[in-house]
From TrEMBL:
The keyword Cell membrane does not apply. The keyword Cell cycle does not apply. It comes from the Bacteria. It comes from Bifidobacterium coryneforme. Keywords: Metal-binding, Zinc. Pfam families: Adenine_glyco (PF03352). Zn(2+) binds at C19, H32, H189, C193. Transmembrane segments: none annotated. This is DNA-3-methyladenine glycosylase I.
Length: 200
């Protein structure tokens, strides 16, 4: 007989409970476990997530994750200064790139946003700007299901209005909500998810 030293083998084999949207697809599951809702810092990293959320608008997040590496390559790893320097030839090149999401309005918005950020937020100022809406802290929610989670809340409205005011494009309240969720400005992991801030 093998001595187990009191370890509950059944409990060890029990999978972590995740948000409903991250149950099946491996890419979404990894993204959920390693990124979504975790505080993200760095102006370049935040610009990437804002851009990805813009490309996701009206589409599935699974599609964006599958095209993420191609988008990184097409947009110089989302280096703000490099993308800010893109011209019409770059727009034409991107529209012809079948590996990315070829939406002209989203491509132009990403370039515009890089220019605004490069002009207004040198260095890590864009990081400080994004986190200033919550005083640098994560706001934790405890929504029961995805059906009880609002498409956007008051904070997202504030973020959206402010971002539009400084000249950022394609940043409506739904996109703003997705952005602040993705970078951990808010933690919207569902009640029961092992990453929910109120888990015991």
């Amino acid at each position: 007989m093998i001595e187990t030293l009191g370890v509950d083998q059944t409990a060890q084999a029990t999978p972590q409970k995740r948000c409903d949207w991250a149950q099946s697809d491996p890419l979404e599951r990894t993204y959920h476990d390693e990124e979504w809702g975790a505080p993200k810092h760095g102006s370049q990293a935040l610009f990437e997530m804002l851009s990805l959320e813009i490309f996701q608008s009206g589409l599935s997040w699974q599609l964006v994750l599958r095209r993420r590496e191609a988008l990184r390559k097409a947009f110089a790893n989302f280096d703000i200064q490099t993308v800010a320097g893109y011209d019409q030839a770059d727009v034409d090149r991107l529209v012809q790139n079948a590996d990315i999401i070829r939406n002209l309005a989203k491509i132009k918005a990403t370039i515009n946003n890089a220019r605004v950020i490069a002009d207004m937020f040198p260095g890590e100022e864009f990081d400080r700007y994004c986190w200033s809406f919550t005083g640098g802290k994560t706001i934790n929610h405890d929504y029961l299901t995805i059906l009880t989670t609002p498409r956007y809340d008051h904070l997202a409205e504030i973020v959206s209005t402010d971002m539009k005011g400084i000249g950022l494009k394609f940043v409506g309240p739904v996109t703003a909500q997705s952005f602040i969720q993705s970078v951990g400005i808010v933690n919207d992991h569902m009640h029961g998810c092992y990453l929910n801030a109120f888990q015991e």
